[in-house]
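seq as requested:
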Amino acid sequence: MSARERPAAGPRRIGLVLLLALVCAAVLLIALPDDREGGAACRPRTVASWNADDEVTGEFARYGDDTARTDDWTGGDGTHSVRLPDGRLLWLFSDTFLGQVHAPPNPAGQPHTWRDTNAPMVRNSAVVMSRSGTLQRTLAAPLFADPAPQQWRWPVAARVEPRSPGSEERVVRVLLWNRMASQGPWIYGVPLATEVATLSLPDLRVEGITKVSDQQAVGDPVKRVLYGTTTVDDDGWTYVFGGTDAQATARRTSHAYVARVPHGRLAEASAWEYWDGEEWGRDVTPRPVLGDGRDKGVGSAFTVVRDEGTYVLFTMAAGTEGLTRVTSYWSCSPTGPWHGPAKGFEAPLPQDGAPRQDTAAYNPQAHPALAGDGRIVLSYDVNWLDATPANAQANISRNVSLYRPRFVSLRLAAAR
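struct tokens:
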């Protein structure tokens, strides 16, 4: 049949071609990153390079090793920070050792700065750093009083915001985790609630504490979500990330969740909205945005930053690698999907000189106030691994560097 004799393409064939074109376009839209969260394009991101930040790590060592101070911070974990309007930096810690340290050698003959094993420990503290980066003083500790016997508060993310929407007066809002003492797998306490504290400026006085998410009605503690491990601002909202304590059980990873609050309303429980897997709502059942309970998920504390149009999450790796390795995920939206885990970095640990190096890294946290020139500054906490609390305390007392934050600077690049 010649070309002249071939029948022309009919409506049916044209319809099939258009349908195929639409399907291909849909596939491309699904495959390409979603840029709806802002003007900058979202692209896969991973850690391109990193190096130890000896300057910030050294400043905490200088402050904590000062033998002349008698009732100040000498070590702590749960490291978070927030830049104040006058340029100072407020550092927040969970379990903290106070008191005095002693110059080496310690009684065991190890050449480390050490503290007495009966040194006071409080559940939270705050240390003020000058604009120039010098740690100056420890606020009266604990900064946030225990809500009840056998309960305590751990501070997590903090931010400066208007006292009320539209107000020129600014305050510091600090998210708190309320926990209760327990036994068995819950050696770090059973999660009870997320609270928000308001601190006045510039004197940093605690004005009040508001409960924004009560979890006590959730019968299984593994399913209780505490919010505030990290926050990210975008388009008029503060996205507040949280997680479960699945690591307290045999599960290998925890699940990540996210809530959002209009700017300036963190302390209003009625302003919080939660992601239920499809949409935001106040009276919904929150659904996780990341985590399969096995190899993919987060530690109980993690951090999220925004690199142009891409959200990047840092957490400890699953399994035994989680004792030292920080890994990352990326997403175009706080609600996911989150892609990873991807390349991270091996957290350097302090050299102790003990026969066994039983130390671990945990709780990576970003510090935007220290970032610049394309760098991201992360801290991570260090502790001694021991199932017996008394033994662990003895080890971190004979070498105070074993219970302090350490810092790294890293750069992100397009993932291949």
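Residues 32-414 form a domain with the Tachylectin-2; Chain A fold (CATH 2.115.10).
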